[in-house]
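Worked Example 4.2. Read the sequence first, then its structure tokens.
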Amino acid sequence: QVQLVESGGGLVQTGGSLRLSCEVSGRTFSSYSMGWFRQAPEKEREFVAAINRSGSKQYVADSVRGRFTISRDNAKNTVILQMNSLKPEDTAVYYCAADYLYYDGIPSYAAGDYDYWGPGTQVTVSS
């Protein structure tokens, strides 16, 4: 069983920054590619960023490119989403997710491919 817990959400003004952290426990963290997704009220869950097992490749959605970065520390079983230049449209519940891969491949953009999810953390950006 894999457990994920997000932290670092909160209320921030437009242009501000937040650093989301996801701590993973239960199995070998380095066997999983990791992703961040978000869901705003009355909208579908959408891809934000993903990182491969080794951390050598990062992918972000067009809507956040240049503002958000994803990283991981396999020694600490943690994945980070650094969010800068936040906008009101970034307001959502942010979810961390883990996808088991038997090789260090390209992480998926599809929420349905991820095996484990955290409970989410609220991010609110005021205008």
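Now turn to a second chain, presented in exactly the same format:
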Amino acid sequence: QLQLVESGGGLVQPGGSLRLSCAASGFTFAYYAIGWFRQAPGKEREGVSCISSSGGSTNYADSVKGRFTISRDNAKNTVYLQMNSLKPEDTAVYYCAAVRAFYCSPGYVPGEYVYWGQGTQVTVSA
């Protein structure tokens, strides 16, 4: 069964850290670039970060650059998003998604991603 499953969300204080995981199954993971998106209440879904199929290339939205780190382990079919120095504005549901491409395309266009997880809630609050 083809699926992406996110985990690792939760409630954290401002300045804290979380590590999200995205576990994939049912497709050839190493052929897909993986992106992380987030959606806050009342806002559009926005791209956060993306990693190429090999893991050799990454990119980040300006809002998270220097605070978030994306990585992947193709042997475990898993992508990670390490989130440090979290801010209240990082509060959102975080989704991982797969695009059949070696590299991430610019612009984080959700329609380009063919497989999506169900999301995991991240809440940053004192």
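Notes for the reader: The first strand starts at residue 3 and ends at 7. The radius of gyration is 13 Å.
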